[in-house]
Design goal:
Helix 11 links the parallel strand 12 and strand 13. The chain is α/β, with parallel strands linked by helices and 364 residues long. 41% of the residues lie in helices and 16% in strands. Helix 7 crosses helix 12. It folds into two domains: 179 residues, Rossmann fold; 174 residues, Glycogen Phosphorylase B (Rossmann fold). The two termini are 19 Å apart.
């Protein structure tokens, strides 16, 4: 049997990278490893570390997004795009893929543009409730567009849309029964409620600052805290408390979720997919520093169904700790959030995307 050759492109944040890895793993399983992958990312972004760690080869492109502020770096953008498309064409010529899959980000834009130029069967996945610019540019060029939210006809041709949900890591599909192990792993007190604070794969300054300023209230609340700070928040290293576990990055996120009673999180699409699967009450603090304010739109999709608490970034420093303490003491509200967020879970999202990938290979 000939191996299926697959290009996967996307990156910049964990929200693009981890779904891509999940789909690669699902394809391997479906095809009994009769598949060969090449990932393509941006040469200076986190995918260059995370993808090889997952066991896949990756090639980097000289590409980055436009700066929001006036910056001389923006003058390089057209040259980066042209360079990346030409390099992508070279990659396609040497690797000869049967199919190309894009998960968003500028590297994905260059690679999928090149793939469609060469008439390679192509699929993109949009994680958010508000489509990113890269996928909007590619919408008329690709065969299929997989989405995670309803109502995406606003952005894409309806005849190309398939609702698949957002793929999440296999170890999050069932965390039931892991709580004792998790509390032991993080060295926490089993008799206390546990708060998990995650600001996305890169950390979140506003959440970090808000927690730091309210740290005395958290100590008085007599709770466990698991806090992923990201690598740029050095203040947290000064905090010493017996039931606080503070790390720059949590690789054992399945155990972190298993230990948690309440979560504080940004509203990235991957985070929301994970929270729905693990069924945790959450306070969402959407990042204002993302394109089209898509995290707020993701959060509102949950809040409209009473599935999450939403706090604006500008309100976090004055309100976050108090909102958290109120939720800790409101079991009825926690149960309502758990029941409602669980309805957003699509545990077989990666399998659904694999179905579509194989379909366009057969029909392409």
């Amino acid at each position: 049997m000939k191996k299926l050759k697959v290009i996967i492109s996307g990156g910049g944040t964990g929200g693009h990278i981890y779904p891509a890895i999940a789909v690669a793993q699902a394809l391997q399983k479906r095809l009994n490893n009769q598949v060969e992958f090449l990932f393509v990312g941006a040469s200076d972004r986190m995918e260059m570390e995370k993808v090889p760690k997952a066991g896949y080869p990756i090639v980097g492109l000289w590409i980055s997004g436009l700066q929001r502020s006036l910056s001389t770096k923006n003058l390089l953008f057209p040259f980066k795009v042209i360079s990346s498309v030409f390099k992508s064409l070279g990659i396609l010529k040497s690797f000869k893929p049967d199919v190309a899959i894009g998960f968003g980000g500028y590297a994905s834009g260059a690679m999928l543009y090149a793939s469609t130029m060469k008439k390679i069967p192509s699929l993109i996945h949009e994680q958010n409730s508000y489509a990113g610019i890269t996928n909007k540019i590619l919408k008329n060029r690709v065969n299929t567009i997989c989405v995670a939210y309803d109502g995406m006809e606003r952005f894409f041709p309806s005849n190309k849309i398939i609702k698949t949900g957002n793929p999440i890591r296999q170890d999050l599909l069932d965390i039931s029964g892991k709580r004792p192990e998790a509390l032991s792993f993080f060295k926490l007190d089993p008799s206390k409620k546990t708060i998990l604070i995650i600001g996305g794969s890169l950390g979140a300054r506003t959440i970090n600052e808000s927690i730091f300023e309210g740290i005395d209230k958290l100590k008085e609340a007599n709770v466990n805290v698991i806090w992923q700070t990201g690598k740029n928040f050095s203040k947290a290293s000064s905090i010493q408390h017996t039931t606080f576990n503070i790390q720059q990055f949590i690789y054992e996120i399945d155990l972190a979720y298993a230990a948690a009673d309440i979560v504080i999180s940004r509203a990235g699409a991957l985070s929301i997919a994970e929270l729905a699967q693990v069924k945790k009450p959450v306070i969402l603090v959407p990042s204002p520093n993302v394109s089209e304010d898509h995290q707020t739109k993701n959060a509102i999709a949950l809040v409209d169904k009473q599935a999450a608490v939403l706090l604006k970034d500008v309100e976090a420093k004055t309100k976050l700790i108090d909102e958290l303490l109120a939720l800790i003491n409101d079991e009825q509200k926690q149960n309502e959030l758990i029941n409602n967020i669980s309805r957003f879970a699509i545990p077989d999202a990666a399998e659904r995307i694999v179905d579509e990938v194989l379909a366009i290979c057969e029909n392409g």
